[in-house]
Amino acid sequence: GRFFMFCRTVLATDGGSFECNPPFEERLMRRAVHQLTSTLTECAKPASVALVLPDWPESEALAAALGASLCRGRVHICGDHHAYLNGRQHCCPAQHRLLRQREARG
Fold first, then answer.
1. What digits encode the pLDDT tens for the residues 94-103?
2. What 3-state DSSP class applies to 49?
3. Residue 5, Cβ neighbours under 10 Å: how many?
4. Overall pTM > 0.70
5. Which of 22, 37, 58, 66 has the fewest Cβ atoms surrounding its Cβ within 10 A?
């Protein structure tokens, strides 16, 4: 997909600071973590990525990201301290605009 092409072209050659929030599907998250760690290891220019992953206890992707030598820190945001704003907030019913969830589900 475009993310993997972006890593191989823009991130690998130009560096920069980015945010990555892959779909919360374990296999895809593992691929994203692997691609990011590989790319950042080989990148010759300064680069950083804020990676957004769910705090699933059994997640291999989360374990790989936290265990990577390139990981410089972690911000853990509990479910009652954040909310999801529906991307279609301009046209959805009011009760669907802001979604709060105490625990992540997967």
1. 777 776 655 4
2. strand
3. 9
4. yes
5. 58
